């Protein structure tokens, strides 16, 4: 995995970023965005609910991005903040393109991320007596429908917003990686083709190492 920890070149001081959380969580999204930006960062792969994480984020959840000494939480909020701050991989606020981009982001959080998170909760997160294994059949059915709806919304590509790689591409690719591990099949050819393109990006390949 690539880890950046670089000094400035004598000009304006670069932002100070520390990413907290293991790669095999939504922390991956933050690390990928930073790699795409080429921004210097430090990575502390502390586990969720560890004392190190709870000292910064009382909920114990990851990722946390400490930006210029301020802890920021929620992977989507963090990567959108980074895109806005650096003026890359996002449409400008207040534009129609940004509204379209945010629509993709919210759709993916509702129809991909939320289903996978519910499946994870009923696999190993909730207390055992509260887990309902049968719910996964329903979630897989919903996941198939979500893929079909996403394909209907996708344009000619190569990315969700067209020619430009952007925030929702990071979310979708990470969710599809997560789905594969969770045994939620990617059934749409258009999504499989799309993943070949996003996973071929240099920043992604550096991170996957």
Features:
52% helix; Glutathione S-transferase Yfyf (Class Pi), Chain A, domain 2; 209 residues; Glutaredoxin; single chain; globular
Write a concise synopsis of the structure shown:
With 209 residues, the protein is an alpha+beta fold. The protein is built from 8 helices and 4 strands, in the order E-H-E-H-E-E-H-H-H-H-H-H.
CATH classification class of the largest domain: Mainly Alpha
Number of DSSP helical runs: 8
Give the low-confidence spans: 5-10
At CATH level 3, the topology of the largest domain is Glutathione S-transferase Yfyf (Class Pi), Chain A, domain 2
The structural domain count equals: 2
Number of strands: 4
Distance between the termini: 5 Å
Q: Per CATH, which architecture of the largest domain?
A: Up-down Bundle
The Cα radius of gyration reads 18 Å
Helices and strands, in order, run as EHEHEEHHHHHH
Oligomer classification: single chain
